[in-house]
Structures are given as structure tokens and as C-alpha cells.
Amino acid sequence: MEQQTAIRMQNITKAFGQVLANHNVSIDIRKGEILSLLGENGSGKTTLMNMLSGIYYPDAGKIFVNGEAASIRSPGDAFAYGIGMIHQHFKLIDVFSAVENVVLGLRGKDANLKLAAKKVCEICETYGFEIDPGQKVYNMSVSQKQTLEIIKVLYRGADILILDEPTAVLTPQETERLFHVIRNMKKAGKAIVIITHKLHEVLSISDRVTILRRGEYVGTIETKDATVQSLTEMMVGKKITLNIERPQVANPQKRIEVKNLTVMRQDGVRLLDNVSFTANSGEILGIAGISGCGQKELLESIAGLQKVSDDASILYCAPQTDASIELVGKNPKAIRDLGITLSFVPEDRLGMGLVGSMGMTDNMMLKNYRRGHTPFMERKEPKELAEKIKEELEVVTPGINIPVRRLSGGNVQKVLVGREIAAAPTVLMTAYAVRGLDIHTSYTIYRLLNEQKRAGVAVIYVGEDLDVLLELCDRILVLCAGHVNGIVDGRATTKEEVGMLMTHLQKEDGRNAV
Amino acid sequence: MLTSILSLIQAAVVFGTVIMLGCIGEILSEKSGSLNLGVPGIMYIGAIAALVGVFFYEGAAENPSPLLCVVIALACGFCASFAAGLLFSFLTITLRANQNVTGLTLTIFGSGIANFFGGSLNKLAGGVGQISVSVTSDAFRTKIPELSDIPVIGPLLFQYGFMVYFAVIAAILLQFFLSKTSTGLNLRAVGENPEAADAAGIHVIRYKYLATCIGAGITGLGGVYYVMDYIKGTWANDGSIEKLGWLAVALVIFTTWKPKNGIWGAYVFGLLYWAYYYIPGLNRSSQEIFKMLPYIVTIIVLVVVSFRNKKENLGPAHLGRSYFREER
Amino acid sequence: MQYEAGKISAKKKHREPLLRIAKRDSMPLLLSWGIRIIAVLLSLVVCAVVIYAITRMNPLKVYGAMFEGAFGSERKIWITIRDTVSLLCIGVALAPAFKMRFWNIGAEGQVLVGGIATAACMIYLGDVLPTPALFLVMIITSCLAGALWGVIPAVFKSRWGTNETLFTLMMNYVAIQITSYCVALWENPPGSNYVGIIHPQTKAGWFPSLFGQQYMLNVILVLALAVGMFIYLRSTKHGYEISVVGQSESTARYAGINVGKVFVRTMLISGAVAGLTGFIAVSGSSHTISVNTAGGRGFTAIIVAWMAKFNTMTMIIISLLLIFLEKGANEIASQFNLNDFASQIITGIILFFIIGSEFFINYQMIWRGKNKEVA
Known about the structure:
The complex is a heterotrimer. Chain A is built from 17 helices and 20 strands. Chain A is of the alpha/beta class. Chain A has a 6-stranded mixed beta sheet. A 6-stranded mixed beta sheet of chain A has the order 16-17-18-13-19-20, sandwiched between helices. Chain A is globular. Chain B has one domain (2-313): ABC transporter involved in vitamin B12 uptake, BtuC (Orthogonal Bundle), CATH 1.10.3470. Chain B starts with a helix and ends in a 20-residue tail after the last helix. In chain B, helix 2 runs parallel beside helix 4, helix 11 packs parallel to helix 14 (293-308) and helix 12 (259-278) runs antiparallel to helix 13 (284-290). Chain B is 74% helix and 0% strand. Chain C is mainly alpha-helical. Chain C has 2 domains: 25-57 and 339-364, no CATH class; 76-335, ABC transporter involved in vitamin B12 uptake, BtuC (Orthogonal Bundle), CATH 1.10.3470. Chain C has a two-stranded antiparallel sheet. The longest helix of chain C is centred in the middle third of the chain and has 30 residues, at 131-160. Chains in contact: A-B, A-C, B-C. Chains B and C meet through helix 3, helix 4, helix 11, helix 13 and helix 14 of B and strand 1, helix 6, helix 11 and helix 13 of C.
């Protein structure tokens, strides 16, 4: 039996300034079916779906809902067409309770808080959610927030659900529960779109897969005919082997020794719990874990950007002299003043690593602008460095004084990594260094990291893609809820083992970590 | 002693009513994310529009009807300040201009308009203090009969013009609207996180426009009350409306954006403002020091609120920023 | 394939929006200034209509009179220049704070306390100290007073994140009350509620004339400050720190910049320069102190600083424009027997247009039917 088409998007084009986010894309979404929208970061998946949810309006092309031409100019229009989207960045009001968020924007009886609370409980029962309608959003965990987003959409009676990277922040158990819910919704005849770049998820849950690459439509295939290899090929465009070079570790020496590192959030929650490990020169130490379980705090603690517990110790063991220097209690400037070069590529590139409104030259000076004894800036060297990085890393920019904010994600990262490496560090920390980058740029980054490793730098690589972690890193430290759940040999371990460590908290010393 | 306490309280209530209206109008506007620093200008515009309106009506009519006078004053004041709010909204919401700069400009513009026409009106009427809109002013100042004659309680509670009670009711209604109705919920969402509100299907732009304009209208009524009741239907280019306007902005912070706190907060400001007058033994220079009290208290509240860092008290999260859906 | 009508029927007709707004990448400098000039011209047309409606006079004549008012005689030119540099000086004071995204709307108060300090020195020390020492003391105290007024909100902001917009606003009124207190304290003659000209005979603490011009020193001082601030913001390490903090506090911390320290240090400078404006206003032009010593310029300067994008050189032009309008409008007011608040109306209208014009510089509009070209 032919399935009914819920939505047809025809020849959709959308540009942001000079950047073409979607070009001539056409897709079909059917009722009672789960469609995966697959593509690398930056391939235009989210932009495409945002045109269904009314956030963006297409520059060209047509949208049909249930066979009729539709014009979706606002999220309100989208709801009227029965389209509901669960955004990757949750659209919730922090100071409101769950049920207040649910009724937001509704009228009449739908907006009655008491009735809504009851109906929310019903929805929870039907699909197996758990949520307290009166709880404030700022007290919720990530997974609770996502549940709330789904309930919000279901409460509005959406027939077409779009989930943007729903599993990125979930534990495997939570993911499984979510998939269970999604299958239930499919049975109820709803059309579901999942935006993702994780192949195994595509294979396990969807009926069909539509692949986008660099904003263009590549093709749609039935999931039962797809394999990891075929999907990868369609996604990245050429037959590639996922081989990342991994040179042998030569002459490792202790460089950073972390002991009893605990970081507390203001409300007393332990973001890092008694973490201890060492990072050696000439090796890449991978850090794995579900996002938001302490990676950011760990790197920031070493970089001198976090307030840590009193008994914590972060020792820096200088090469040659073997002197040990305590880093706890020192800010980035104090650390640099000791002659220690810690390079750090943070997750938030434009919000932390670079100044978006400045050009490459001024960004080169960010960490060493204090050089020289006059109160004035010295711009000659940074300019030369900017030129050098632009050339060597093939940064695409109209000029080195163009605000870096206007560069594409990959080029922004090249500027940042280029600067951090140019500082000739002894320790190089990177957080999600390849997030949002195309395969080509990603491999450039891996190559640069390996070069640093060969040069005897202690590299710490926080990653989200297990395949990459397993191929790139010499040792992998697995974090789980701020706790070191194990440090494994990158050459010997398996994906399953790391996956287990990421999700099942090991108990030690008879103390229950939370 | 009792009479002086009573007259202090009366002075505080009358004074408080001006800034209470200004404050709840501004709360409505700020709840939608619009930090409108044009409050003094809007109060000016409301005041002068009402004055001009009834001045010509009383001049033209043989026997001006008090009721019609009141209606004309309120309608002129509300509409003119609504229009000022519309100008602010157009610049900051549609054209996404900086709210601080636009608000300050509106204050310059409003005080210019008001003092220009106020001065001209004075000239037309034959000199400063010669404007007479006595019918309107008397109507605004009519006390509640009988009840106001009760000793102590009468002067304390019932010897005011109707706008005093109107302001309290407006504050209560606004509190109810914001915390109990779904439209109020949507409005708060717009001020907290317009992106989320937009994704929930709320017409962000419409909410911001309406809240800012109606808020400006209410603020303008503060100016109407000032000119009709407080200074008895006259006009003076002495800048006192501007002072009151800034106090209204201060009061918004003092109330932590809750209209119900505006009721007692406004009277407390009134007490603080007039306290110097009733404290014996102050000379003129030390009186000026006492007039600082409302501002000092506001600063203290601002600081204490930031110490406690409680999300609900910090004001709308998106206050002062403009919203563009396709920003990226 | 067969389509079924959906359960949820969308009532709206299929229609593309008439007008959509998109952010511009960038615009050539010349074009952006062109837009601003067009906005000023348009605003002048609107003002002309308003003037005509009120006065029934030929607006061109009125504009001629405005020019007359601002530049009609040597004396008028010098008054215009004096007031321009006074506005400019406050703009210069605000530049570093605003560049740091610290909304210092307390310049009015900072100028006033600087003025009070200066007046106090003139009154109490004018007959005691020799002139150079007196000037030194006046400069130091006015800077300190302004800096103190500026730094209090900055300390709270850096320590507890207290909202600086509202804090600095309140500080203005505290300063105004202190001024009222001092006026009552120093009033001369007693009971007048005015301080009156300080040392009209000895002129102790007055700016000396330079090159035969009474206000030449004001101009030189302020221009030096403007150039100094321009260099400070553009070429020094401090200036770089200010830019980084203004763009992103977490980037600043990442770079090892102590954000709180930069807040405090920059507001010390900003407040000190504002206090210095008070010194120039009292010692260099009015020779008295009143609550009108700042005269609302503390607020107008916010608009100057913002419109100039914190570039102190651009501020010169914008200050001149605003003061020209003020003087011109005062002139028409007296010539045509209007009251001088007309100038505020005209200033307001012109500012609204300039504020609105920024939109057309930052965004572009796409009309219905135009989008085929994009694809």
C-alpha cells in the first residue's frame, strides 16, 4: 500500500548572506514513517527543517502539506499545519514551570493550567514519560528538558514531528527510551523526521533515509537497503576509509598530573568528582563521555579557568628540568607568566577562543598581546603570523582583517587551531575540535594533532565520535557524570567497552557517586 | 503631630500615584523586553496632551461638563503617550535600534514637545500660572463624599481624587494579568526568551508592540494625573515631570518587576521623598540631602537583588535586546 | 500519488510575505555614510514641515536663521565651539565604557561631581593657593570625584553583576541632590538659591585666555583628550583588553584578562574624564555651579558616543551637529518669539531619523517576487 505523503518540499533554496545553506532540495515526508535526515554538520539539515517549523522562510521553492501548497511564515503557521519541531537547542523559558511552557502561545481551554497539567500527565502515561508539571525548567536535567519539548509538541496535537539531533545529549538508556516513544508515535500514524549524523541510529530506527551534503540533496534510500558504508559514501561524497593515522608513542614523559580534582557548581552539584589522571608528552589522551559530563570543566580547570576544590592538585612537569609546578589557583595569565605554554582550543570557538568582531591579526594577539614593555600594541608579528596561518592552513577569507565571525565554521577553527599551535605549546587541549567541520577539514585537524604528538606535545583530545577517538588516541579517559570511569588503551579497547564505561557508573572506594 | 503625620501620608499617596502609574506602565513594557528609558518623555507628552485637550475644550464650551473634561483629559493623555510608545516600538522593534539610545532621545523629544507647548499655552493664557482648566482639575480632585469626612480614616483613605484608586486597581489588574492569564504568560515568555516564545507560536512582534504602547499609555496617565491633580491644572517648565519619570524607572527596579509591589513601593517612595518636609530642624541644604533617599534606596535594592541572584527577581532575561528571528 | 486533505486545515492562503528582512554582510563605508546623510536630510524636511506648521514661516529662512544663530558672529561661533567641545568631552569619557559594553548612562552625575569638586576648590582655595597649584588641585579633585562616581557601579558590576544601566542612572540623581545641597550651602547672595559667578573680580581658578580667546584652552584640552582616547582605544594594550571584554567576557577570561579589573579600571578612566568635563565646565566656561552645569549633556553624549560607534574622531562631527541644532533652534526661538524648547523637538526628530537609519545599514529588505534572482 502506498503511504500517504504528509509533506513535500520542492526545490527549496535558502541562503544566509553569501552562504548557500540549502540549494534546490526536494524531500517527501510520509505518514506512519520515520525518516532520517542524514548529513554531516553544516550540510543544511537543520536549516531545511527550520523552514518547516516556520523559523526561516525559503528564498525559493515550494512546500506542500497534505498535498496543498502551504506557506509557513511563522511557528504559529507550522502548528496550524500540524508540524512540531523539537529543536536541538531547547526553546524553553527557564523561569517557567513545565506546564507553563507547555501551554505557551495557546488560547482558551488549551491554555488552562490545571487542565493542561492533567493532560500532560495523560500524555506521559501514554508514551511512558516522567515529568513533574510544576517543576521549573532551570531545575531540570537535559533529558527532562527534551521530554518536555516532546510533550509540548504532542500537546499541540502535532502529526508531523521533527527531532533535531535528539540523542546528542542522552545516555544510551535514555536514547533507547526515546526510540521506544518514537516507534509508538509512528504506530499512531504520525510522520516523524529525525535529524542526525549518527549512522547506527539511522539504521536502527528509520524506515527511509534522505541524505544531504553541503546543502544539496544527494538521495533517498530505504533503510533496509542501506549499510554504514553506503550511507557514509553518500554523506561524504566519495569512497573514504575511516583511517586516521596513529603514530607510535615515542619516549612518553609525565607532563600533567591531575589529582583529586573536584569542581562544584554554585548549587552544590559536582561537575567533576575526584578526578585523577596523567597526561604524557608525545601521546594523545582522548576524553570520552556523554556531552556535558565534565569535559568542559576538566579542560578549563587545567587552563586555569575554573574554581576547583581545595584538595585538588594539577601538577605541570616541565620538560628537561623535571620541575613540578602546581597550577591550581593560577589564572591563565599567571600560568603563562611562569613560561608554561598550555594551548587550549575550546568548544565555543567564537564565544571563547576568538573575538568574532576582530580580524585574524587581532585574534592572533589574544594570548600574547602583553608582549613588549610599552603600553602600546605590537601588531607586526601577529600580522605575519596571520598571513602564515592563512597560507599554510588554507584559510578562506577575503582578508586577514575581515572579522572572523564572517568566516565559515571550518575556517574559524583553522584560525583558532593555527594560533594555538603557533604558540609552540607543551600541552595542547582541544574540545570537540572537529565538530561541525567537513571531512576534509577534520582530517587536517587530525594531521595537525598528530604532528604535535610527534613533536612531543601532550595532546588532550575531547571528542564525541567514538570511532574517531578509537582511531586517533593512544589512551582514552572515560568520564561519566564527572567521574573517571576508567582509562583504557586506545589500541586495545573496543567501542562497546568505551560505550559501557560512558554510561555505567563504576563504584569505587565504597562511595556512591551521583 | 497626628495632623502632620496625616498630611505626610497624604502627600506620599498623591506623589506615589504619579510614579505608580509611570511604574506599572513601564513594568508592562519591560515584561515584553522593551527597556523604555523614555518614561519621562512619555509622561511629559501625556501631561501636555491632556492639558492642551481640556484647555481648548474648556475655552470653547460654555458650560464644560466635568465628566467630559475628565474623559477628554484621559483620552488625550493616553492616546498621545500611546503614540510615543508606538514611535519607540517602531524604532526598537521593527528597526531594531538600540533601546537605551532611543529611549533617551524620546525623553529629550517629549520634554521638548511638552515644554514648548506648555510654554506657548502659558503665553496664550497670559503668563505663567495663568492656565485655568479649573473644571477638569476640580473633577480630578473630587473627594469621595461622606466617607472622606470620617476622622482619621477619612483623610487617610478617602480624601483623594479618583486617579489614586484607579492606579491601585490598575496595578492589581496588571498583576493579575501577568501572573494568572495565558496572555500574561505569553507576554512574560516574550520578555524572557523571545526565540522560545516564537517557536511556541506566539506573535512576538505583536506582543512587544502592544505591551510597549499600552505601557506607554499607562505611563502617560501618570503625567495626566500630575498635571491635573498634583499641580492643579497648571503648567510650569521646571523639569519636575522628568524627575518623577526617572523615579518611576527606579521604582520598577524597586518592585522587582512585580506590579503589586508597585503599590506600596510608590507610597514608600512618596514618604521618602517628602520626609524632609516633616522632619523638624532641617535647613534648606540638608533637606536636599534627604531628597536623595528614594534613589539611594533603589540602589540598595538593585544591589541586594544582585547579591541574592534569584532568577525570578532579576527582571526579564531578554530586557533591552532586540529580536530577529533569522539571526545566526 | 493520491493526496488526502489534512485533518488540520490551514486557514491561511498560500502567500509569500510581502517583505522579508535579512541581515547584511557588510556595506561600503561610503554608502553607509550616504544613508546617514540622507536620513539627516529627510529629518530636516520633516522639521521644516513642523516649523512651518507652528510658525508659518518659510522653513528655508528658518534654517538660515539657525545658521545665523550658531555661526552668525565671532562670539556665537565661540559659544558654539565651547559647547561642542563640552559635549565632545563627555562623549570621549563614555567611549571606553561603551566599547566595553558597559552602559554608563551616569555621565551627567559624573560631570556634576567633577564640577562640584572644582567649585569647592575655587571657593575654598581660590584665594589661598597660587594659580598653578590651584589648577593642579582642581584637576586632581575633579578627576577623583568623577572617577569615584564611575567606579562604584563598576565595582558592583564586576563583583556581583549588578545591572550598570540602572545603577549609573540612579547615581545621576544622587549627584544632582548633592549639587542642590552644595548650591544651598554656597549660595551667593544668600536666599537666591544660586551660587553666582565665583570670584568675578580676581578670576581665581578661571581658565586663562589663550591667543586672545577665552575658550581656546577648553578646545585644546578637549581635542587633546579626544586624540588621546582615540589612541588609547586603538593602539594600547588596555584598549585591546577593552575591545575583548566588550565582545565576550568568556573570551577575555580565556585570554587571561581579569574582567573585573578591566571594568573597574575603565570606569575609573571614563569617570575621571567625565569629572574633568565638569572641571572644564565650571572653571573654563560658567564659573559657577548649578544642577544645570551638565545640562542634560550627559545624556545627549550617550547618543553622540553611540552614533559615532565609539570613535572619538567621528564624535567631533556629531557633537558639532547637535550643538549647531541647539544653538540654531535657540536662535529661531528668540527671532520668532517661540520658546527655546523648540530646539529639543528638532534635535529629537533628527536623532530619531539617524537612529532609524542604522537599520538600513545593517539589514536589507527583500520584496516579494525579487527572490528568483537569489536562486
